[in-house]
Structures are given as structure tokens and as C-alpha cells.
Amino acid sequence: MIAISEATVNDIKQIQHIVHITWPITYGEILSKEQLDYMLALFYSEEALNEQFAKGEQLFYRVDEGTSTVGFIGIEHKYKGQAITKIHKIYLLPETQGKGIGKKVMEEIERLGAENNSKALSLNVNRFNSALGFYKKIGFEVVGEADLDIGNGYLMEDYVMEKKF
């Protein structure tokens, strides 16, 4: 049984736990260890997560399977004033792959988006991330590219993907 519920600052340690398991697997062959460590500190330190929760632009959700938290998402409705729900973060533990959990999570994000008058979902994905195939399979299309300077000489090289509904 999958349950998706709003996360709070009390879930920060769990979010960090999931990120520290998923990121090395997801990005270990794409990014240098130095860049990986830099990005984890930049986006997922306790201070960074507390700030993201406090700003309230992104809504965080826990993904639970039974009594275990197996993932989390961070989304933003009305992204840049448009009828778009932006998926900023979506990470599921490796053992969830092949169980249909990712698809269920995306369906829930789409439902939340529709509830908030969105007409599309949007996300950025690293151009070399294996999740690219999953996103295409569930109806996302590449609509652009984004090279984002995140400091320290590092660049995030992403595809911008969108799914209209």
C-alpha cells in the first residue's frame, strides 16, 4: 500500500537519508564525487532544507510503503505564475523500482496539479539520467534544455520535460 502525505520539517532527516542513498546511485556515473558532495550540501543540508520548507514555495511529500518511507517529492504549483506544476524533486529508494510506485507517485502529482488548476507538469532531468526513459514512457516530452550554473564551477545540464493534461 502506497501513501503520499505532506512532509514537514520533522521529515528532514528521512529526506536526507533517502537522498544519500539515491543520489550516488542516480548520479554516481554522471557527476564527479566532488560535484555530488557539493550539490548534496547545497540542496539537502539541514539548513538548506529548513530554508526550503520555510519559504513555502515547494510542497514536500513523503512516499510511504506500509510503515516505511521509500521516497519524497517536492513540487510547486503555479510555477512562474503559469498553470504548471513543477516537480523539483522526486526520489524513490532503489528497491521500489519495478513495483509501479514511480507511476503511482506521478499520477498523484498529476492529481495534485489538476486540483491546483495546472494544465501541465514540468521537470528538469539530467541529460544522462536513466530516468529519462521512464518520463518519456509516462507521457513527458523534452521541450528544451537548461544549463544551470550552481556555483563552484559546476553546471547542471538538464532537459526540460513537460506533460500536458
Tag the structure with descriptive keywords:
alpha+beta, seven-stranded mixed β-sheet, 5 helices, 36% helix, globular
Q: Care to give the gist of this entry?
A:
With 165 residues, this protein is α+β, with helices and mostly antiparallel strands. It has helices spanning 12-27, 33-44, 46-55, 101-115, 131-137; strands at 2-6, 59-65, 68-76, 84-92, 120-126, 141-151, 154-164.
Describe the structure.
This protein has helices at residues 12-27, 33-44, 46-55, 101-115, 131-137; strands spanning 2-6, 59-65, 68-76, 84-92, 120-126, 141-151, 154-164. With 165 residues, it is of the alpha+beta class. A seven-stranded mixed sheet has the order 1-2-3-4-5-7-6, sandwiched between helices. Helix 1 (12-27) runs antiparallel to helix 2 (33-44) and helix 2 packs across helix 3 (46-55). The longest helix is centred in the N-terminal third of the chain and has 16 residues, at 12-27.
What topology emerges from the helices and strands here?
Layout: E1 2-6, H1 12-27, H2 33-44, H3 46-55, E2 59-65, E3 68-76, E4 84-92, H4 101-115, E5 120-126, H5 131-137, E6 141-151, E7 154-164
Parallel strand pairs: 4-5
Antiparallel strand pairs: 1-2, 2-3, 3-4, 5-7, 6-7
Report the average pLDDT across residues. 96
The class by helix and strand makeup works out as alpha+beta
Describe the sheet with the most strands.
Answer: 7 strands, mixed
N-C termini distance: 26 Å
Shape, per Cα inertia axes:
globular
Low-confidence stretches: none
User: What is the percent of helical residues?
Assistant: 25-40%
Strand content: 35-45%
Order of helices and strands: EHHHEEEHEHEE
The Cα radius of gyration reads 15 Å
Number of strands: 7
| SS element count, helices | 5
Lateral strand order in the biggest sheet: 1-2-3-4-5-7-6
